[in-house]
Amino acid sequence: MGALSACNVPADGNVTAVLAVQGAFAEHERMLDALGQPWFELRDADDLELPFARLILPGGESTTQGKLLRERGMLEPLRERVLAGMPVLATCAGLILLAQRVEGDGSRATTPRPDQVGPWLATLDVTVERNAYGRQLGSFHTTAPFDGLGQVPMSFIRAPYVSAVGPKSQVLARVDGRVVAVRQGSQLALAFHPELDGDPRIHELFLSL
Ligand code: GLN
Question: Which of 39, 59, 145, 186 is deepest in the core (most CB within 10 A)?
Answer without folding.
Answer: 59
